Amino acid sequence: MAEKADIGVIGLGVMGANLSLNLADKGSTVVVHNRTQSVTDVFMAGEAADKKIRAADSVESLVAALAKPRIVLLMVKAGEPVDLLIAQLSDSLEEGDVIIDGGNSLYQDTERRRALVEERGMLYLGLGISGGEEGARHGPSLMPGGSPGAWERTGRILKGIAARAPDGAPCCEWLGEGGAGHFVKMVHNGIEYGDMQLIAEAYDLMRRGLGMSAAAIGETFSSWNEGRLRSYLIEITADIFHETEEGTPLVDLILDAAGQKGTGKWTVIASMDLAEPTSLVAEAVYARIVSSDPDARRRSAAVFSEEVTPLRGIEPDDIETALYASKIISYAQGFRLMRSASIGHGWDLDLATIASIWRAGCIIRADFLEDITRAYRNDPGLADLAEDGFFAEALTGASEAWRKVVAAAAGAGIPVPAYSSALSYFDSMRSEGLPANLIQAQRDYFGAHTFERVDRPRGEFFHHDWGSG
């Protein structure tokens, strides 16, 4: 009789296949299944041929091949496919078995599925996975949440395949119950949207505003990757600008219509539900939406024919400063959102741990995350990352160049929604007075919505008979 496998993987797309190989390399015996048998056949005849991996021709045979308590990792498209597989697995799995959803599922779906699976005596883990193809194969950042018992049974395996941070710590730690893992992954992806938009705006400022060549921009990003912006996204951006096709920079041949899969939008919706401002992520999402209809932009360009003019008084170093300051704001907003969600859902998220497991393996991995980890380890109750001494000093020092870049971009006609949004948030948060008093007066005038007064205690509400003099 064949040795029972340690873990089953259903779904052999890029991520599922590479995670299976990673699991096998780290000592697990793996059984795999894919709905399309030909995909399984190709996988087994290729990289999996000399690994401790074997194939199952059905979900039922995969379950039968697993040692108890069974662990099944789902690597399928989020949404209905996950629900269908859970229903199918429920007929074969037993009490104490574990289902792991490794897709980008909406955290409310994970909450619902955990309750459903636990009602049937099994355990459920919502596992955020970041790192793309390379990370899945050699070490991703993993964000688990769900049934505590599921973590007890899978933690050793998951930590074994995770990336290692510079200090050797695995980039995988238990985050909390319910949908905590998938919520943190959602915010990770929202921050990723923001990082990418900030980088894209820097590119636009240098290309159209400063007239720099793709090669020169690539060299600039390479130099930035030697400093405080050192990160995976900056590194690959430098590589992109050095790629050519028949002498033409490849980036110039790519249509400027950005796609998205929804996690950025989910982050913004969650921030509205929790009354937390993630304005930079919102602008990044909207920027992708605006980009997605190039025909509409061409029509508008024909109507509003004003040309972009050169940036005045701006150097690449100023753009680097604006990017860095805006990045601080983006992460500050993301961590505020996670803090609020933790309180609201009772997850007890450890923000230092989250920053720590993002230091390697994931798409937003960066030296910058060492500073964030330190900030939350020094003060676990830190309400706003921007108020940490290190980051507060950085924002103060960046203010002049940041404002100069945003003003120059507006003068030149180059959109910088992420930089502008970040700066507006910064100015709003440091303003003791905002014009919301007028908004409250207007709301009371037309709708009797009442208002609080500066000369009375908070929580007392008043209505005025407007127009009576």
Structure, described:
The N and C termini lie far apart (about 90 Å). The chain has helices spanning about 15-25, 35-45, 60-65, 80-90, 105-120, 130-140, 150-160, 180-210, 215-225, 230-240, 265-275, 280-290, 295-305, 315-345, 350-355, 370-380, 390-410, 415-430, 435-445, and strands at about 5-10, 30-35, 55, 70-75, 100, 125-130, 140-145, 175, 245, 250. An eight-stranded mixed beta sheet has the order 3-2-1-4-5-6-7-8, sandwiched between helices. It has a two-stranded antiparallel ribbon with strand order 9-10. It is about 55% helix and about 10% strand. The chain has 19 helices and ten strands.
Strand order of the largest sheet: 3-2-1-4-5-6-7-8
Give the SSE order as H and E letters.
EHEHEHEHEHEHEHEHHHEEHHHHHHHHH
**Would you identify the regions where 5 or more consecutive residues have pLDDT less than 50?**
none
* Structure classification: alpha/beta
C-alpha end-to-end distance: 92 Å
The profile of the biggest β sheet is: 8 strands, mixed
Mean pLDDT: 95
Radius of gyration: 25 Å
